[in-house]
């Protein structure tokens, strides 16, 4: 039988963290005295706002037409308006600077295929470490090699970009940034952005800023966004505003609609023109009913404020409980706790397996979210807990974790 070759880069992909977790739990029967609670997957569990559901149902007539890849003008205008309000930036041209996408996940992956020239042979795609797995897969499938910059606890888990040698920067074609970070919650400062913009200008790489957690934060000041930082640093004007910079955002976390798969890419008009061309061929058009519901969501902030208040309540109640048994702090933003479990005497994988077996609570080992780089795996001995369920369920999970740690 003739063996048919497929893309050899597929063999470079690592198992997804949740597949690793499934293997870790293989053969384990959780304690039946406890109902299952999962803090493992970052899937929002707060109710979808009724007005978004209503907008979706009222737009079903749109199923009879083919949507355009560029999206409707009202949707692009709604996204542009939200960007201007949220980040206090000058007029965003909805025709050239905004592109609706079917969730930020597929767009992050596709963007690398569009901008990376894998034929150069030594191309690098840089990402923080730990990281969202899509960045790594996008690098490999584009023909590039991932380069990981470790997040440092002493810098509030911000990656240490100053440690990267010039010979590495000269090979970087794409830099993935995640701010607020997954899983650490770290938010880049204006000085961090100044450094990255200067490096991008010097070495000619593109910055892709993943900002899907931007609307979940705990203080009064919202996280700084990449376009906002660029504007403050004088990079929003001229012949090519926001040169070599694009941002990705989504309604999934902001509006509790992960099943809608609705997001956008915004920024450098030249890059977006190329990305639109790429997506015209790859078939990534958003359905008209989803576009209608997305317009309603981007135009409303009241539900976002209510959603944020629920997360604040959970984190303010749960974080102090867990601090008594493990090293964990309130993150800058996002809905994850990134906890060091070395005080328990267990590794991150041992902790996750035993917690699941004895208390039926699922958490994700931090080592599954990072790679061994520069002599260490920065996720080792940490766990990620997604506080996405109700306040009561989150407290129940926290109390079980406390009881588990005290039993060790």
Strand content: 5-15%
Shape: globular
Helix residue percentage: 25-40%
- Unreliable sequence segments: none
Give, in spatial order, the strands making up the sheet with the most strands.
2-9-8-7-6-3-4-5
Q: Overall pLDDT, averaged? A: 96
Number of strands: 13
Count up the helices: 14
Features:
single chain; 408 residues; alpha/beta; eight-stranded mixed sheet; three-stranded antiparallel sheet; 14 helices; 13 strands
Explain this structure.
The chain is 39% helix and 14% strand. The chain is globular. Strand 3, helix 5 and strand 4 (145-152) form a beta-alpha-beta unit. It has 14 helices and 13 strands. 49% of the residues are buried. The protein is α/β, with parallel strands linked by helices. The longest helix is centred in the last third of the chain and has 22 residues, at 302-323.
Give the SSE layout.
Layout: H1 17-24, E1 37-38, H2 50-57, H3 73-87, E2 98-101, H4 104-115, E3 124-129, H5 133-141, E4 145-152, E5 158-159, H6 166-169, E6 172-178, H7 190-203, E7 206-210, H8 226-232, E8 245-250, H9 251-255, E9 263-267, H10 269-282, H11 288-298, H12 302-323, E10 336-340, H13 348-359, E11 361-362, E12 364-365, E13 382-386, H14 391-407
Parallel strand pairs: 1-11, 3-4, 3-6, 6-7, 7-8
Antiparallel strand pairs: 2-9, 4-5, 8-9, 10-13, 12-13
Helix pairs in contact: 2-11, 3-11, 4-5, 4-10, 7-8, 12-14
């Amino acid at each position: 039988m003739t063996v048919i070759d497929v893309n050899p880069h597929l063999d470079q992909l690592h198992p997804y963290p949740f597949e690793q977790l499934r293997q870790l739990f293989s053969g384990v029967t959780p304690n039946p005295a406890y109902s299952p609670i999962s803090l493992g997957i970052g899937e929002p569990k707060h109710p979808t706002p009724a007005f978004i559901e209503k907008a979706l149902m009222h737009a079903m007539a749109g199923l009879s037409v083919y949507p355009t890849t560029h999206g409707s003008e009202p949707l692009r205008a709604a996204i542009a308006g939200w960007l201007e309000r949220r980040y206090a930036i000058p007029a965003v041209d909805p025709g050239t600077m905004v592109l609706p996408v079917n969730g930020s996940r597929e767009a992050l992956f596709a963007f690398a295929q569009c901008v990376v020239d894998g034929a150069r042979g030594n191309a690098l795609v840089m990402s923080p470490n730990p990281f969202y797995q899509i960045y790594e897969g996008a690098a490999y499938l584009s023909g590039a090699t991932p380069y990981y910059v470790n997040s440092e606890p002493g810098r509030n888990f911000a990656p240490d970009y100053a440690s990267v040698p010039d010979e590495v920067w000269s090979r970087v074609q794409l830099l993935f940034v995640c701010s607020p970070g997954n899983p650490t919650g770290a938010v880049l400062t204006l000085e961090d952005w100044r450094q990255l913009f200067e490096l991008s200008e010097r070495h000619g790489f593109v910055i892709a800023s993943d900002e899907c957690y931007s609307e979940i934060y705990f203080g009064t000041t919202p996280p700084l966004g990449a376009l906002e930082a660029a504007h403050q640093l004088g990079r929003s004007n001229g012949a090519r505003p926001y040169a070599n910079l694009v941002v990705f955002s989504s309604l999934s976390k902001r509006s509790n609609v992960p099943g809608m798969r609705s997001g956008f890419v915004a920024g450098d008009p030249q890059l977006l023109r190329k990305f639109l061309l790429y997506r015209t061929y790859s078939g990534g058009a958003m359905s008209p009913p989803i576009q209608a519901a997305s317009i309603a969501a981007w135009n409303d902030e009241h539900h976002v404020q209510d959603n944020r208040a629920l997360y604040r309540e959970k984190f303010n109640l749960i974080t102090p409980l867990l601090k008594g048994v493990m090293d964990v702090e309130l993150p800058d933003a996002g809905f994850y706790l990134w906890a060091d479990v070395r005080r328990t005497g267990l590794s991150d994988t041992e902790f996750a397996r035993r917690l699941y077996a004895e208390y039926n609570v699922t958490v994700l080992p931090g080592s599954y979210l990072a790679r061994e780089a520069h002599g260490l795996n920065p996720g080792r001995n940490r766990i990620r807990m997604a506080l996405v369920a109700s306040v009561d369920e989150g407290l129940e999970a926290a109390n079980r974790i406390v009881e588990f740690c005290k039993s060790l």
